[in-house]
Amino acid sequence: TVDMDIASDGTIWAAVFSVEWGGGGLVQFNPATNDWNYWGYGQTNNNWPSLIGYCEHVAIQDNGDGEYSVWIDGEGWNTMIVYNSSTDLFTLLPQEYVTGEVVSLPGTDCIDAEGNLWALRVTMPGDPFSLDYRQPDGTWITPSQPSSVMSDIWSFKAFGNHEALITGLNSEIFQFNGT
Fold first, then answer.
1. 35, 39, 36: which is closest to 15 by C-alpha?
2. β-sheet bridge partners, residue 165
3. Other Cβ atoms closer than 10 A to 55
């Protein structure tokens, strides 16, 4: 297990990396019912994309209406999956490398205190990705970009009111303070 998050309904979601002795994927545990669910390579339950063999990051964003979305960074770059709690279905996001497409979660802590989801998105094919955040209402915001670190984020932490810390390749630390 490489990342986990807890939804507003109390369910625990975990991204699981594949290893020699076991498959990876996504795991959900419901402590209220003691039920476990697993989605991995070859699975199609709840519209899970069957070719996903492991997951790297998971982030849960409340939608403001009692429902939530589980954002799953699947196998490799540009494999994003979203689970919608109101439909109980997964959607594999487009993988066409077009402007605005979500390609990855930047780390293990991608939801700030305001409930915004931070993600890397395509700006224009061939250009560096943009570190944007999605508000609970679904609106995407592109703040000023720390261009020298965008291509190589080693560690990421969203917190506070639209704030984030980023560690880059050369151990430099950048703080985005909301403006």
1. 39
2. 157, 175
3. 27
State how far the alpha carbon of 102 is from the alpha carbons of 42, 43, 61, 73, 119, in Å: 24, 23, 15, 10, 7
CA-to-CA distance for 101 and 122, rounded, in angstroms? 5
3-state SS assignment for residue 47: helix
- Prediction pTM value: 0.91
Structure tokens at 61: 């964003």
Which pair of structure tokens corresponds to residue 55? 């997951």
- For residues 108 and 78, the model is more confident at 108
133, 95 Cβ separation under 8 angstroms: no
| Cβ(74)–Cβ(49) below 8 Å | yes
Q: Rounded to an integer, what distance in angstroms lies between the CA atom of residue 146 and that of residue 133?
A: 14
Averaged pLDDT, 131-140:
93
Written as one string, the DSSP assignment of 132-159 is: EEE-TTS-EE-----TTTTT-EEEEEEE
User: What is the pLDDT, as a whole number, of residue 147?
Assistant: 60
Residue 5: closest CA among 55, 58, 69: 58
